[in-house]
Amino acid sequence: MDRKYVAAEEALRKLELAYGLKTSVYIYGATGYGKTRLAKEYLDGKEAFWFSANDPEWNYSLIEESISNVKYVVIDDLQQMQDSDRREFVEKIIKRGDIWVVLIGRMPTPQWMLNFIANGELMVISEENLHLSVNDVKRIAEGEDVILSDADAERITFGGEGNAYIAAATIQLIKSGERFDGTKLADRIKSAFVKHLEDDIIPQWSTALQEFLMEISVVDEFTLPMAIVITGDDRAASILDETVKVGNFLSLEDGVYRLRPYLIEALNNRALKIFGQQKYNYYVDNAGLYYETRDMVPEALKMYEKSGNTGRISSLLIKNGRRHFGDGHFYELKKYYLQLSEEEAENNTVLMSALCMLYSVMMNPDLSEYWYGKLRDYSNRVEGGARREAYEMLLYLDIALPHRGSINLIDLIKRAVSLKKSGGFKLPEFSVTNNQPSTMNGGKDFCNWSKMDQFLADTIGKPLERFLGSFGRGLVHAALAESLYEKGEHDADVSHHAMLAHLEVEGGGKVELLFAAVGVQVRLSMITGNTRNASQLLDTFEKRLINENKTAMLRNLKALRCRVMLMMGNSGFAEKWMEEAPNEVEEFWVLDRYLYVTKVLCYLDQGRNLEAINLIERLLYYSEVNKRTYIHLESGILLAIANKREKREWKEEFIKLLIEISEYKFVRIISEKGAGVLPLLKEIKKEYLENRKADVTWFGRLLKETAMIAERYPSQLNCDSVQPSDFGETSMEILRLQASGLSIKEIAEKLELSERTVKYHASENYKKLGAKGKTDAVQKARSMNLI
């Protein structure tokens, strides 16, 4: 071997093993991974016969004569071998047994090789085996008298996906005096490799394959139906089979094809040169149309933006704007709405309404009212159907705008019902829940309605359901179930209304309201200690949401499951959930409010009190701007818990909050916090009861139920008073040793204590941590940064 040559360690190991066993070998990988170079260097000095599967003609007798005089045969470009006669000839050579055969190709292991592999007659060296390691790259650099830092070697290795061509080219540029800054030089190498694919590799393929891949390269991944729509070629399946055969450039997983990023860029470059921009945009628009017809609106808009199809962009924004905010793609499309010029929007009812709603959700009421005014002015200057549509949108906004709260909502709904009865008046879709497991804290805050829940149910309940259509079926019972639950009324009544809501929704309603009913059922199950039923409800409903592709609702369902797990003391589940929770620091999106409150609970469970306080402050600001009573009340409870832990003032505000909550007769909003809030209630009990506004009966019920839940779920949020100073030196040492995996007996021997003493300290530690055993105690201690 050339002294400067460095082979991928795993590939060389397998090649040496195959040689030692005299087992033929197949080396495959995309271009640039050093397949042929590996074989040449390993066989250097050995008499071998080389030929290519790509040769136009094979002289079989001449090949047989040539290989009879050697012990080594190498057949390259195997991806080009389509002829069955050639394949049978290669099989015959492998079966001889007196010749070591090295096969080289770009495609993964073909079907015909499997029997040889199963019989131990063939070993495979895959592209993954050919990937250079960081150490390999450093050795290549040293051979060229180039010293690389670990960080630079990692950039070259991982940035180039272990490709030998990219690594060698980068090192040569560094050697020639180029400064490696990890970005500019890497981009140059990438461009050089893309050009190599574009000029040297792609032209080797058939014209039909080149055209197909250039057409499909407008997307990063695709399915077979999508490929047919984009290219208009019903031979897509056979062409994709050919693509797999010509090289390891295409992967298939769960029905989704993916081209390599370098190849996509090369194909795009070539497509623009050969097709021209107009024809290239035709295929981009086809991709956009495919996405659009499958309600993949954000993906469709990216395609239309790529092709510069402003007409389709505007059409999609209008189509999306007609959907209710919980069901539309407003978050993903926010950028496109905000890019609209005033001239583009001010003459379209739907776009003005969408901007009005979007700014309200973004907590910018001034701009929201600005667009409301624009829409009102527009309604005054148009006539006929355009005026009626504008009036409909204005009334919809009067009801739905988040920052206006629930003031005068009953009168607005009565007016809408009356207009609908008069005929010719139709409101856009209105979601009561906004994909939250709640009607009270859904699209609007209905805490005030809870004060007269039964009266409202009897008077406007049914007319409201009829007015909302399918979005209203089950609404009255779902709302009553939640209102009664929050006030701690009879469990049987809560369950009865939740079940009726469930049945009515199944009779032609929307799954959004079913989620609200399921949410109440899950919470009731947890309160009563029926954790198994709660889990079953969650599992069943999750399957339905997956089947119906309700992505937004699924996110909130996972958050509900996280709350259940927190009550049960499963901090591990919460930690995993936090990995996918929204980042409130990057952006505070109010439709994620249920997720944010869940995140606060997780912060508190993990002892991250300051982070909890920061997020609570955002929630409190939101509740003030958008008049969200429930968020205000729940955030206030959690803030009191966090402030008490951080030894900040909390009592005065907490007592005020309790008085406010008692006006609604809400119990569960507090009692559900169990062991996390019980110490606070006990500590302020005397002061609260001395307050002239105190509701003594309500507080008694609250304290009793909270104590019951704290006893049932003792580890829930129960780390407010646990500090390192609460543990003696011996107790802390035992906890640390348990965390390192030592048993009671091993700890006793190490500390020269009796096993009984160690068990006592461990038991006391579990009590202080609110843990069920060793594993739970160690997990909680770590989350509180005690060990």
Descriptive overview:
With 787 residues, the chain is mainly alpha-helical. It is built from 42 helices and 8 strands. The strands form 2 sheets. The protein has a 5-stranded parallel sheet with strand order 2-3-4-1-5. A 3-stranded antiparallel sheet has the order 6-8-7.
Any chance you could write out the topology, listing elements then pairs?
Layout: H1 9-21, E1 24-28, H2 35-42, E2 48-52, H3 60-67, E3 72-76, H4 84-96, E4 100-105, H5 114-118, E5 122-125, H6 127-130, H7 134-143, H8 150-159, H9 164-175, H10 184-201, H11 207-216, E6 221-222, H12 224-231, H13 236-246, E7 250-253, E8 256-259, H14 261-275, H15 277-293, H16 297-307, H17 310-321, H18 330-339, H19 342-345, H20 349-361, H21 365-381, H22 384-400, H23 409-422, H24 447-450, H25 453-468, H26 475-486, H27 491-506, H28 511-527, H29 531-547, H30 551-567, H31 571-580, H32 593-605, H33 609-625, H34 629-645, H35 651-664, H36 668-671, H37 678-690, H38 696-712, H39 729-739, H40 744-751, H41 755-769, H42 774-783
Parallel strand pairs: 1-4, 1-5, 2-3, 3-4
Antiparallel strand pairs: 6-8, 7-8
